Amino acid sequence: MTTTAAPKQPRRTQEQRSSEMRVRLLDATIECLVEFGYTGTTTPRVAERAGVTRGAMVHHFGSKTDLVVAAISHLAQRRTEAAMLEIGRIKDGADSIATMLDFLWELHQGPLFIAAMELWVAGRTDPVLAWEMGKVEPFVNNAVLMALSRYVPDEVHRKDARDFLYTAMDALRGILVSSFIEPDPARALRRWGRACAHLRVIAAASLPGIVIAD
What span, in angstroms and rounded, lies between the C-alpha atoms of 187 and 86? Predict the structure, then answer.
């Protein structure tokens, strides 16, 4: 009986191995930001989490600043991908405003938002981080707006819709940040529900072309 040997997998190039190593380090950085905060995200800790030697990490990122700056863009990309994925999971309903607000809530749950918050706060006293966050954050916000654009009819003024969504995100992020001090998901959700009641009043006045259930 003859057996057919399994085809050999092509060997990864040095460039592929290097790219995979960078992704492992950047993912580990995000995980450390979530678990240990910005201050606790040290280069030895990231190397350990990624399963690489300190020397291998230094080969790619010479300092914590280099590592975190690269992680900012990596995080922005993952948050953008999450926005696209999340909008695909949401079922269209009879109430477009409720659909959009539910989308925003789901999008701001989980580790990616927590990691972003750690970097926003750290950027207050670190101009390098602030500059880098300032460059990529508009791309993330634009991805959110684009994901929700299908719920905004052409006859609705797009600027009004954009202003409404930014206001909703500002309210939601404030609620979630305050929840870091006193973690209680149920309480945060109740506060978001209260904010949504007011946001719906704003939407009814400023976005008459969007469907809002009674």
Answer: 23
